[in-house]
């Protein structure tokens, strides 16, 4: 088909082919150079945007942190003062047990506490970043007149410095016949004492404004 | 401007058209001097493309029936026919399928045509080629003339178009339903200066042509022929006198000036109808030349291709300029944006260093504070699930029971119930899952010995009261004062000799497993 239509190329067509080729090359070069120039500046603009956003987000995050501090500072300081954040105050717990036993005339209160272990719950890592949680297990072996003594002891421990939850408790009547003796009941309970530590949790520099 | 080379069998006219107006014409004789003049004319005028229109006596048209085949087969059949009839002028032949036979195997009807003496135009074509004039095609007047049928409203039935392009000839072209069937030119002996007697000269020729057409069976013996005659004003009287309508023919005479008006052409002589066909020829499409080898038109194809390339180049330039402009304006826009962003960044930096920089350490603790307070709240809330809460709830449930019910032992545990498999696990006080009570309650009922039914009823009543509490998720009997379940073993004694048991504490014992939800506020 091409051979039939163009058995010979006339100078007119040759000139047109040459001019078209030159136009194509020149246009491609112009478009490419302008694109490279534009793309380079676009990259610069993107990095300028990122830098600006970095500072913007730093300010936003500072404002947010400020709000968090406003909201949680007093409660947090309370936790620090109560010995929930920082080192555990075991002495306070023992003194509370001794005082309650003495005050209520409880015949026997045996207590022991295990060494402190870090809690390794997965959800903790996910939900509460930047904070390490430790647990010490306390056992109470009590002989008492009635169950009220146990609950008084647990209530008093709540007022001590620390945060605990009762894991288990067995309460049993020692004698099923007599009800008025001092050794009427016994209880064996396990309590978990929780303490938190964060790397910079105790910084005491005042916040702005 | 358009240029037409019009060859009438002897001399060659060159017509220049601008729009619908003929703006100039020149004629050249087929002598050495004429040919030389033609050459010098082409060399001196602008080299614009041209069409070549032939209207010669040495043309033959015939129609043939061929088998209804397509593609290469049809081409082969047609080529064989052209070879048979026009071997010496095959390059100047024409073929077109114009219909199908109505009877038999319905063959295709092909119109064949050719310039039987192409040597007539060769000297002119040689000069055109030598002067490098782009020639778009060689067209023949009989085929071009079918474009006039619409204008003269003769598109259907059998039409014999009679026209005069030069003084000495009359062209008669037969159309059936707008398709060319045959065409012939007759020589007449007309005075150059007086053309008013055309009717007398043309009528016998037309009569002979009609007889020939009927003899060839191209027109049926009784079929009516519609004669459409084109004539100038001075020819009208003569034509009306010598061409009369009868039962076998109708006659319509068209004035050349009227046709010029209908076609909208100006500057054309009204003596003969050559201007009309020249104009129709110019209106023909540029492709599919009637005659001539493709190589004769290569300059025109080159010119067309060059024009297309220039148009493409222009398009490329426009697109390139637009794209470059878009890129550059985008770049400027980005540059402006960069300076604004840098300004904004500096503002933020300043604000940060003034208000917040000194407190970076404090802010790092904000997350920890938040977490510590939240977590301590959660542990406190979960620790409300305690033995005290369980005992208070249990006493409320058993309120109103007689004094003969004794709870001797409670083994209590804080648990989580896995939602997926209902598995009971030790409580996680730091988790989201609610902490439940799990307790094994062991008690006694003081009922007379061997009053089994009463014992069982009492314990069932206790279970019912516990279950009725909305916080209780489940109660399971671990042991009953009398285990009457089919799968259990049971033995006792009864009789007058049997001594009443002194150890009441050992009878009426039951044991229940209770699972209870956390307090409502948790």
Question: Any overview of this molecule?
Answer:
The complex is a heterodimer of chains A (209) and B (522). With 209 residues, chain A is of the alpha+beta class. Chain A has five helices and five strands. Chain A has helices spanning 2-5, 11-81, 90-104, 122-127, 147-159; strands at residues 108-113, 117-118, 132-144, 163-173, 185-197. In chain A, strands 1, 2, 3, 4 and 5 form a five-stranded antiparallel beta sheet that branches. The longest helix of chain A is centred in the first third of the chain and has 71 residues, at 11-81. Chain A is rod-shaped, with a radius of gyration of 39 Å. By secondary structure, chain B is an alpha+beta fold. Helices cover 37% and strands 26% of the residues of chain B. Chain B contains twelve helices and 18 strands. Chain B has helices at residues 32-44, 71-85, 122-130, 141-144, 198-215, 236-242, 256-263, 274-283, 298-356, 360-382, 387-397, 452-467, and strands at 2-7, 12-18, 21-28, 50-54, 59-66, 93-100, 108-115, 135-140, 158-163, 169-176, 179-187, 225-231, 249-255, 405-417, 424-426, 436-445, 472-479, 509-516. Chain B has a five-stranded mixed beta sheet with strand order 3-2-1-4-8, with helices on both faces. In chain B, helix 1 (32-44) runs parallel beside helix 3 (122-130) and helix 5 crosses helix 6 (236-242). The longest helix of chain B has 59 residues, at 298-356. The radius of gyration of chain B is 58 Å and the shape is elongated. The mean pLDDT of chain B is 89. Classes of the chains: A alpha+beta (209), B alpha+beta (522). The interface between A and B is large, with 93 and 83 residues. Strand 4 of chain A pairs antiparallel with strand 14 of chain B.
């Amino acid at each position: 088909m091409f051979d039939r239509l163009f058995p010979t190329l006339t100078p007119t067509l040759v000139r047109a082919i040459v001019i078209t080729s030159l136009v194509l090359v020149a246009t491609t070069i112009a478009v490419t150079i302008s694109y490279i120039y534009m793309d380079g500046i676009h990259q610069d603009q993107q990095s300028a945007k990122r830098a600006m956003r970095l500072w913007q987000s730093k300010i936003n995050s500072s404002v947010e942190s400020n709000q968090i501090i406003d909201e949680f500072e007093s409660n947090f300081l309370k936790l620090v003062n109560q010995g929930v954040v920082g080192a555990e105050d075991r002495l306070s717990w023992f003194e509370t047990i001794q005082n309650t036993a003495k005050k209520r005339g409880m015949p026997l209160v045996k207590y022991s506490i295990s060494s402190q272990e870090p809690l390794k719950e997965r959800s903790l890592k996910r939900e509460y970043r930047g904070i390490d949680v430790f647990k010490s297990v306390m056992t109470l072996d009590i002989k008492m007149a009635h169950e009220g003594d146990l609950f008084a002891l647990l209530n008093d421990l709540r007022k001590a410095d620390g945060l605990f939850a009762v894991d288990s408790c067995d309460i049993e009547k020692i004698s099923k016949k007599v009800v008025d003796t001092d050794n009427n009941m016994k209880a064996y309970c396990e309590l978990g004492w929780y303490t938190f530590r964060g790397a910079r949790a105790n910084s005491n520099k005042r916040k702005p404004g | 401007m358009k240029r037409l080379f019009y060859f009438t069998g002897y001399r060659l006219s060159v017509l220049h058209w601008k729009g619908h107006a003929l703006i100039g014409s020149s004629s050249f004789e087929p002598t050495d001097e004429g040919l030389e003049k033609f050459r010098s004319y082409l060399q001196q005028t602008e080299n614009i493309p041209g069409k070549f229109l032939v209207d010669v006596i040495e043309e033959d048209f015939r129609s043939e029936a061929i088998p209804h085949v397509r593609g290469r087969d049809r081409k082969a059949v047609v080529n064989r026919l052209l070879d048979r009839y026009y071997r010496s002028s095959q390059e100047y032949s024409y073929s077109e399928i114009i219909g199908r036979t109505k009877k038999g195997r319905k063959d295709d009807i092909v119109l064949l045509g050719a310039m039987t003496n192409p040597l007539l135009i060769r000297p002119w074509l040689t000069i055109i080629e030598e002067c490098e004039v782009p020639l778009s095609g060689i067209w023949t007047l009989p085929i071009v003339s079918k474009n006039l049928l619409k204008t003269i409203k003769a598109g259907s039935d059998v039409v014999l178009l009679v026209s005069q392009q030069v003084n000495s000839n009359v062209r008669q072209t037969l159309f059936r339903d707008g398709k060319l069937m045959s065409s012939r030119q007759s020589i007449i002996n007309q005075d150059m200066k007086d053309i008013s007697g055309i009717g007398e000269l043309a009528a016998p020729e037309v009569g002979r042509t009609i007889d020939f057409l009927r003899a060839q069976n191209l027109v049926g013996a009784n079929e009516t022929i519609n004669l459409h005659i084109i004539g100038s004003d001075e020819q009208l009287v003569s034509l009306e006198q010598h061409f009369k309508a009868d039962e076998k023919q109708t006659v319509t005479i068209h004035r050349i000036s009227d046709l010029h008006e209908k076609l909208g052409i100006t500057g054309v002589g009204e003596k003969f109808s050559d201007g009309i066909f020249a104009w129709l020829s110019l209106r023909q499409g540029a492709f599919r030349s009637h005659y001539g080898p493709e190589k004769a038109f290569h300059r025109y194809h080159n010119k067309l291709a060059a024009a297309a390339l220039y148009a493409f180049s222009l398009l490329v330039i426009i697109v390139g300029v637009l794209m470059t402009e878009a890129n550059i304006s985008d770049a400027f826009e980005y540059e402006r944006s960069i300076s604004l962003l840098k300004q904004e960044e500096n503002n933020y930096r300043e604000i940060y260093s003034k208000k917040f920089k000194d407190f970076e350490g404090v802010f790092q603790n904000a997350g920890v504070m938040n977490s510590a307070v939240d977590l301590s709240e959660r542990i406190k809330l979960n620790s409300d699930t305690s033995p005290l809460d369980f005992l208070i709830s249990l006493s409320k449930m058993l309120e109103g029971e007689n004094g003969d019910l004794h709870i001797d032992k409670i083994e209590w545990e804080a648990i989580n119930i896995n939602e997926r498999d209902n598995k009971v696990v030790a409580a996680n006080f730091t988790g989201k899952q609610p902490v439940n009570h799990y307790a094994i309650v062991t008690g006694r009922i003081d009922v007379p010995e061997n009053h089994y039914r009463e014992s069982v009823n009492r314990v069932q009543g206790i279970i019912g009261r516990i279950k009725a509490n909305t916080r209780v998720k489940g109660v399971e009997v671990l042991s009953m004062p009398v285990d009457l379940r089919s799968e259990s073993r049971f033995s006792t004694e009864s009789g007058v000799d049997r001594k009443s048991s002194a150890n009441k504490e050992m009878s009426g014992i039951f044991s229940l497993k209770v699972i209870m939800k956390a307090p409502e506020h948790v």
